[in-house]
Amino acid sequence: MSIPLLFYLILIAAPVSIVIHELGHALMAIVLKAQKVEVSIGAGKKLWGLSQKSFQLSIYSLYFLGGVVEHEKEHPYKLREVIWISLAGPIMNAIVAFVFYLLYDWIPNDYISLFLLFNIWLAVVNLIPFKIKEKQTDGYTIFKEISKRF
After folding, report:
1. Is residue 124 left, alpha or beta, with left meaning phi > 0 and alpha meaning psi from -120 to 50?
2. 0.90 cut: is pTM over it?
3. CA-CA distance, 2 to 19, in Å (whole number)?
4. In a domain, 66, yes or no
5. Cα separation of 60 and 48, whole Å?
6. How many distinct structural domains can be found in the chain?
């Protein structure tokens, strides 16, 4: 991989894909009537924020290090709601990957290819259930919720 492609991956493709992923979770939480939705991208010093009624988006200086969505609902989520919210991030990445696959077929280049592949990777890895310290994948969230209820 060339140096420009590596910088593109770290500074543009990964963060944009992470935002898309987290907004997928946030949108599904809103659709399922969450009263409060907070999206955080990255870690470190807060660079930028947007607050709109019950929705909040914060971008931090190390914006390429991942993201998280916290959401609250007056009544507990049903199992299917937890599953849909958890699947929404990977589904968004899969949709974006498909669009960029079509774009790559029309305009092939390394930047489109890398964005496509990163979104596929992000969708697939997030469906695998695992936890590292306090971070857990969407697949782990689904597995944990199903295990609690059966």
Report:
1. alpha
2. yes
3. 24
4. no
5. 7
6. 1
Name residues of the chain where pLDDT drops below 70: none
Q: How many helices (H) and strands (E) does the chain have?
A: 5, 6
C-beta of residue 121 within 8 angstroms of C-beta of residue 96: no
Tell me, yes or no, whether 64 lies in a domain.
no
Kindly list the distances between the CA atom of residue 112 and the CA atoms of 84, 105, 109, in Å, as whole numbers in the listed order: 28, 10, 6
Q: CA 9, CA 17: separation in Å to the nearest integer? A: 10
Coil, strand or helix at 42: coil
Measured CA distances, 117 to 13, 21, 111, 127, 135 (Å): 10, 14, 10, 16, 23
Model confidence over 87-115: pLDDT tens digits? Answer: 999 999 999 999 999 999 999 999 999 99
Residue that the structure tokens 């500074």 belong to: 11
Is residue 45 in some structural domain? no
CB 79 within 8 A of CB 145: yes
Place of tokens 């420009």: 4
Per the DSSP assignment, residues forming a β-bridge with 56 are 38, 51
Domain that holds residue 81: 3-32+77-149
135 within a domain of the structure (yes/no)? yes
Q: Are 18 and 12 in contact (CB under 8 A)?
A: no
